[in-house]
Design brief:
This protein is 37% helix and 34% strand. By secondary structure, the protein is an alpha+beta fold. It has one domain: Alpha-Beta Plaits, CATH 3.30.70. The protein has a 4-stranded antiparallel β-sheet with strand order 2-3-1-4. Strand 2 and strand 3 form a beta hairpin. It is globular and about 35 Å long. It starts with a strand and ends with a helix. The mean pLDDT is 92.
């Protein structure tokens, strides 16, 4: 298995307003044991991910499924080229 790092950019810029960021951090800790962390980056709500999995597709799908169940709309996913090209 490999470790994959990527950032999910959320669609709603207000989703982590107030105490919501801490609430989502708590809710995402259980399924991911701290490997998926909500944050605000330059005013944009993001979810930073560092996960070990058998493939990139499996990793992304797992996180997307949980975020959707939590009611978080996704705008796009960003990943450094080294994360895609590394063997």
């Amino acid at each position: 298995m490999r470790t994959y790092e990527f950032t999910i950019i959320l669609a709603d810029p207000r989703v982590f307003d107030g105490e919501a960021l801490l609430d989502y951090a708590d809710r995402l800790f259980e399924p991911f044991k701290g490997d998926v962390n909500p944050a605000i980056s330059a005013g944009t709500p993001v979810v930073d991910c560092t996960l070990e999995a058998p493939s990139l597709e499996v990793t992304i799908q797992r996180v997307v499924d949980v975020l959707k169940r939590e009611g978080l709309a996704i705008r796009h996913i960003e990943m450094e080229p080294k994360g895609v090209l590394a063997a």
